[in-house]
Amino acid sequence: MPRPPASPLIGVAFMLGAMASLPFIDVFAKFLGQQGVPVLQIVWARLSVGALVALPFALPHKGAKGLIPDRPVYHSLRATFLILATFCFFLSLKYLPIADALAIFFVQPLIVTVLSALVLKEAVPRSRWAAVAVGFIGTLIIIRPGFVAMNPGSLLALAAGSFLAIYFVMTRHISGRAPAMVTTFQTNAVGAAFLSLAMPFVWHSPTPMQWLMCAGLGAIATFGHYLIVRAYDHSEASLLAPLAYTEMVVATVVGWYFFGDFPDALTFLGVAVLIACALYITLTERSRATPDAIEQP
């Protein structure tokens, strides 16, 4: 399929649309967790619905045979890290406001940089290592170990960012082997198949409203990531990367509106440090095939 003509303003609109929609995944996940739906079941719903939504977009590329991963063991391992990231992040929402969990999750691009050097053997200049070090300080400002009682949600959000960073590094390793929507379907389908084995042991019979929320978070996740792909079809990574952090603004607003949560001043300071460092890293990644934009699990 030919690449659409570049139109930066359309790309910006797609990116802003994605960032405005993705925090509602967290809203639905937090509501479901508060209502007693097991986190593992919420993750299963997110992946299952994601696979169903992606299927009609992935199927036309190579047909049914093209949906089967060419490296099943590798894709299974990627799906495992996505499951772990999503599980840890959704579980962190039981302990933290949405904005606070997302703030700690912003450590993800810094971890990707470290893993890119250690695992992919990519050259990382000293200035970028300095940004990683400063970003780590920003994470400590948010978590504040030793100054306040350690919240398990902070550790879970940090683990979620770490697992998703591993997932992204593995994705970068196979970038270009299949269309993005095909890879999205494969990852969701493999993850959903794994978790289906555990559902008989944790299943909670959802109410009709809970079914709607389960369907909503899976559909929003796939739709939001699709908008990100479309955004990069029209605009350069250097233009879109800063817009990824508008998700934090939306997350703060929806967290306050639905749950009455609002981050404190030190959290905002830590977020500012993390965003500055992550933006520096992301904006120096223009030569890479896969941009390191923040992505919701």
Question: What's the helix and strand layout?
Answer:
Elements: H1 8-21, H2 23-34, H3 39-62, H4 72-92, H5 98-105, H6 108-118, H7 126-143, H8 152-173, H9 180-196, H10 199-202, H11 208-234, H12 237-240, H13 246-259, H14 265-283
What would your notes on this structure say?
This protein has one domain (8-283). The chain is globular, with a radius of gyration of 18 Å. It is mainly α and 297 residues long. The longest helix has 27 residues, at 208-234. It is built from 14 helices and no strands. It is 72% helix and 0% strand.
Sketch the topology as an H/E string, one letter per element.
HHHHHHHHHHHHHH
Number of strands: 0
Rounded average pLDDT? 81
Number of domains: 1
Residue runs with pLDDT of under 50 for 5 or more positions: 287-294
Please tell me how large the radius of gyration is: 18 Å
Number of helices: 14
Euclidean distance between termini CA atoms: 28 Å
Major sheet, described briefly? none
**Strand fraction:** under 5%
Considering DSSP H and I runs of 4 or more, what fraction of the residues is helical? over 70%
Structural class, from secondary structure content? mainly alpha
The geometry reads as globular
Quick description:
By secondary structure, the protein is an all-alpha fold. Helices cover 72% and strands 0% of the residues.
